[in-house]
Structures are given as structure tokens and as C-alpha cells.
Amino acid sequence: MLNQYLFIGILALASFAVPVIGIGFAWLISPKRANPLKRSIYECGLETIGETWVQFRVQYYIYALVFAVFDVEIAFLLPWAVAYNRLGLVALVDVVIFLGILATALAYAWRKGALRWS
Amino acid sequence: MALQIAFVIFSLIALIGAFLVVTTRRLFHSALALVLSFVGVAGLYILLEAEFLAALQILIYVGAIAILIIFAVIVTRHLMDPKARAFNEQWWRAALVAAGLFLILVFTIAKVPWPVSEAPLPTNVIFSMGSSFVGTYLVPFEVISVLLMVALVGAIIIARER
Amino acid sequence: MIPLVWYLIVAAALFCIGLYGVLARRNAIGILMGVELMLNAVNLNLVAFWRYVCPTNVAGLVFAVFVIAVAAAEVAVGLALIVAIYRSRDTVNVEEVDLMRW
């Protein structure tokens, strides 16, 4: 069972190795003669004006919040879905109640404009 | 042997990540170290053959909770000031308390004869979890949905800009 | 097979590191991160006991899932409170939020 994870481990190691080898090899063989013009920012946007650590809007946090709540829902729905075939109607009603309560929360968030980007 | 090596690697990832979380001065870096620690614990879950928990650990802790924390760091601005003190004056007392508790816990763990069972792992773990959610643990299951609803509504009311 | 004691010691270390973070951080978000580490340690214990002590009963796993859900709710509300305090008092330092202290 755990042996199957060996392949995932090898894949993870390989995917770590590719960028490390690429960047490391380039660093090893490339000539290093820096001057201010060479080290300036190019192609990747402009130099920042003012502070880099600006304050972001709370709206980002609210989006992440709604996402987190419905992410947790998966933890309960997936085992139920696996067992669905042998559980019957009562279990379905239970889960519909569960989803109904969460849908109320979503409706509230929607109505309060938490999902709107104004 | 390979199992033990994997255990040591994942525990080191989890513990070094946790150590960085509580010692880094910049909060954003601690949030990233927190992700590292969560990934290490997910690896330990896989070694415990709790694949579902490992998936949940990645999905919820790394995917949602760490993101929430990072977003909270970026919406509160002055946190990034590296000159501010990150720890209070009692940090050494806190370290003493933590180290003392660790010694007590290790002593207790070493002393208790844990009743380790040799029963083989059941094949349908997720199935039994699903049926116990709508069976034995029906009330906690429904209460969790109420808790999540209250958390969402409350957090929106508290955090929303007026 | 890895002994159960190893998992328990790793979980104890994780818990104590989290406890140190909770006690020593000045920043409220840092304190919440410490709480998350402690909850992770508890979950690790629950899953380790499930695996080694009674693997046929899924109660340990079910409780771990409940702990994850409660941790998500706790972080959501806790961070919302911190954002609100930051907005009204312009600080997230727990030593400066002392209106109810005497």
C-alpha cells in the first residue's frame, strides 16, 4: 500500500530536481560580471512607486472566508458520497439538511454583498 | 527501514516548519513556514495510512486555512515592520513552560504501556466514516454545519467594511 | 513498523512549539498560528491512536475531521476579529488591545 507512495516520492524528488539542476547549472557556468544596468529590472514590470507592502482590501479576506467554509464541506460530503449506495433515504435527508444550513449562510453572504467587488 | 527514514524526514519537515513559525520575525514568512509544517504533518498521515486525512490536511489546512492567514496578513498593513519586536518580554518564561511541558509529556508517553492492537487495517475506512457521519455522529455532523454557518455570518459581519 | 511512541513524541513537540508561539508572540495573527500548530498536534495524536490502538473503529478519524472543521471556523472568526480590531484601533498587537484590562 505504502509502496505506491514511493512513486509519488520519486516524482516529487524529480520535480524538485529539475529547477534546482537548471538554475544551479546556469549559476555554475554563467560568467558573472554585474553592473547596475545589467542588474536593473527588465521585462518583469516597472519599478515600484512608494511602499511595496501596501494594504490590501478586506474583500480579499471575505472571499477566502467563503471559500474556506465550502472547502470544509467537502470533508463531510466525500465520505457520505462514498457510502451513499448503502445508506438509503434518511441519510440523504440528513445531508440535505446539512447543505441547506450551509446554503443559508451562502445566501446571507450573497445578500449582504460579500461576494460583490465594488 | 525506509518507513523509519520517511518518518524522520516528515517529522523534521513538520517540526522545523513549526519552529520557524514561532521564531521568524516577519509574519509573512511564518505563514509560509506554517504551510511547510502542515505538509509535513500530511506526510505523517500518509505513513499512518490515513490517506483521506492527508488529503484533507492539504485541501483544508494548506488550501484554505493557510490562505486565510496569508490574506489576513496582507490586509493588516503595519505588520511587516521588521523593526518592531515580535515577541513579548516573557518569551523566555514561555520557552521554559513549553520545554517543561514537553519533558512531562515525553516522560508520561515513555511510562504508559500503550495497548497497541495488531488488528489489520479495514479496507473501507472512508465508507465507515461516511456511514458514521449520518449514523453515530449525526448530531455533531449537523451541528458542524450550524457552526460553519455561524462562523461565516459572524466573520462577514465583523470584518466587512461599512 | 514505526512505534506508536515516535508519533506521540513528535505530536508533543509540535504541541509545545505551538504553545510557545501562543505565549510569546505579540502579534495576534502569530498567536493564531500557534493555536493551529497545537490543533495539528492533537489531530496527529488522534490519527496515531486510531491506527495503532483500534483501527477497526473510525471514531479517531471522524474526530480528526471534526477538529479540522472547528479549526477552520475558529480561524475564520479569529482573523475577522483581528481585521476588525486592526481597522478600529490600528494595531494587531495583543499588548495594546487592553480596553478590558484592569
What's the layout of helices and strands?
The complex is a heterotrimer of chains A (118), B (162) and C (102).
Chain A lengths: L3 H26 L6 H4 L18 H26 L5 H23 L7
Chain B lengths: L1 H22 L3 H21 L3 H25 L15 H21 L13 H9 L4 H22 L3
Helix pairs in contact in B: 1-2, 2-3
Chain C lengths: L3 H21 L3 H25 L6 H31 L13
Helix pairs in contact in C: 1-2, 2-3
For the sheet with most strands of chain A, the description reads: none
Detail the poorly predicted runs of chain C.
Answer: none
Q: How many strands appear in the DSSP assignment of chain A?
A: 0
Largest sheet of chain C: none
CATH class of chain C: Mainly Alpha
End-to-end distance of chain C: 54 Å
Counted up, domains of chain C total 1
Q: Round the Cα radius of gyration of chain C to an integer and report it.
A: 17 Å
Order of helices and strands of chain C: HHH
- Helix content class of chain C: over 70%
- CA radius of gyration of chain A is 25 Å
N- and C-termini, Cα separation of chain A: 51 Å
* CATH topological fold name of chain C: Helix Hairpins
Order of helices and strands of chain A: HHHH
Low-confidence stretches of chain A: none
Estimate the strand proportion of chain C: under 5%
Q: Number of helical runs of chain A? A: 4
Q: Helical proportion of chain A?
A: 55-70%
Shape of chain C: elongated
Q: What do you see in this structure?
A:
- The complex is a heterotrimer of chains A (118), B (162) and C (102).
- Chain A is an all-alpha fold and 118 residues long.
- Chain A has helices spanning 4-29, 36-39, 58-83, 89-111.
- Chain A has a domain at 58-112.
- Chain A is 67% helix and 0% strand.
- Chain A is flat and about 75 Å long.
- The model of chain A has no long low-confidence stretch (mean pLDDT 84).
- With 162 residues, chain B is mainly α.
- Chain B has two domains: 1-79, NADH-ubiquinone/plastoquinone oxidoreductase chain 6, subunit NuoJ (Four Helix Bundle (Hemerythrin (Met), subunit A), Up-down Bundle); 126-162.
- In chain B, 74% of the residues lie in helices and 0% in strands.
- Chain B has helices at 2-23, 27-47, 51-75, 91-111, 125-133, 138-159.
- In chain B, helix 1 (2-23) runs antiparallel to helix 2 (27-47) and helix 2 packs antiparallel against helix 3 (51-75).
- The longest helix of chain B has 25 residues, at 51-75.
- Chain B starts with a helix and ends with a helix.
- Chain C is an all-alpha fold.
- Chain C has a single domain, classed as Helix Hairpins (Orthogonal Bundle), CATH 1.10.287.3510.
- In chain C, 75% of the residues lie in helices and 0% in strands.
- In chain C, helix 1 runs antiparallel to helix 2.
- The model of chain C has no long low-confidence stretch (mean pLDDT 90).
- The chains are: A mainly alpha (118), B mainly alpha (162), C mainly alpha (102).
